[in-house]
């Protein structure tokens, strides 16, 4: 069992604290911020275009990338929006020098990029790019609380130009951005599934992709697709953090060649995101899947304990339902990736490429983790190694692929056999969908779960280029309107290293003694700690009750005890001694009596629950039967503890002679 709490106190950031044990966060709703135009000065020495806001290495950073017609020194200027008056930035506005180089000949001009650092939480910012006397229009974004629940949106293949009409495709993508962000104005990241454009170096397609100001107001976490990789325009348009651009992460094995590439990672509010260039899958050049596996392993080994969730993104969907499901290269990845992802504790994999929607069953080591998991289950409970794979449908309507049929090639590994529970689907997919309408995926990161939704952003009506050009459409606006759900699943994570201790202790058999947690062993949320008396924080909650059953003839004595680990959030922690409890008997039976209360160590300078303490017991000769034990938890801790989302584990021990 795990316990958790988030805390927020008034005053400075230093004095805010969150304590928790499995996934404790503080959520904050914030309104969206619109772009704010500012006229440039008269001395236009360079034309500045293609501005796009990107994700940084953490929630306190953003990147900005743009094109310039002139090779001049440029920068990003940033100030709190409240300090920008009548379009004028304050004299002390922060500036960040840009770097860049000449674009390839077909793009023309030059590229520039800079990283904005040291952003403050819960602040609206305005920014512009260029130089004194030649600034771009200004745009705005807003940071939210750097701890807590949040939502991010995932977009499958816009592939602008795929329909043959970049204008129509761009209109569809812009409409999806408008619809999704109108419905989710507090979304904090826009995550790409790859294939931003149809033709890697065609700037008219990039212009249509970048037309929406939403891409200057919300950070876009770019992913390389097979249609992006063939030229350098992708690298010219996007700057990504912590990027390894050495040879193994390029499919031609040569970063100085004509293709884009690189793997990268970042941490955003307790989610570790890792993005792979899945175009490089052949190991002939020393790269490919083996190199990606090494990259993922290294990042998780070094940084996995800094986050509570692990999300991977790459373009080529290994568990998808349509035209690419049986591609030979995807079958290779389907063998190479899953076992490693399971062993590394990956929670969610987001993919593109197949222009249709699918949600896998929980996959462990390349096989369905639980053969009994039902198609379309609304709630799933991955044990250790269970990974959810999601394929995004088209976000623009430029191209859709229809779902294909299973074959007899097997129901594990690289096979594309039928699902025994749903023979029209592949063995690995819980949900498959294609209506020829635009969709996006919303991921809610919550205290003790991930909620994944596929949401319609359009109907058969325009803008929907593929349908406008003659493709059939099965959607009806009355039955499946914009904003309606195609699919929704809640992922409830596994808690604890020892299944037997945490959740999977079997029910007792007749004539035996044992205990089990009453119901699903979910997060024990201690809520939000409150500042008390100006010197400490307090939070409270209840453990998940334990059912103790004893049907032995010997009627021997028994006892249940527990102790808690330190509360930890990455490299921040505080002692479990600050947690105390008051045990009680909910349902009498088996001679159960409650143990004595244990004070928080904050009150008596003691050890609290950091050492083993009794919950309940029964003496020799007690009656047979079952009891339900509970306890009220009381957390008190100094206000010097640093703000964070802390985790701890309460370990249960049963003794009987």
Automatic annotation (TrEMBL):
InterPro entries: Calcineurin-like_PHP (IPR004843), Metallo-depent_PP-like (IPR029052), PAPs_N (IPR015914), Purple_acid_Pase-like_N (IPR008963), TAT_signal (IPR006311). Residues 152-357 form the Calcineurin-like phosphoesterase domain. The keyword Signal applies. The keyword Endoplasmic reticulum does not apply. Residues 51-143 form the Purple acid phosphatase N-terminal domain. Residues 1-42 form the signal peptide. Keywords: Signal. It holds the Pfam family Pur_ac_phosph_N. GO terms for molecular function: acid phosphatase activity; metal ion binding. It comes from the Bacteria. This is Metallophosphoesterase. It comes from Planotetraspora phitsanulokensis.
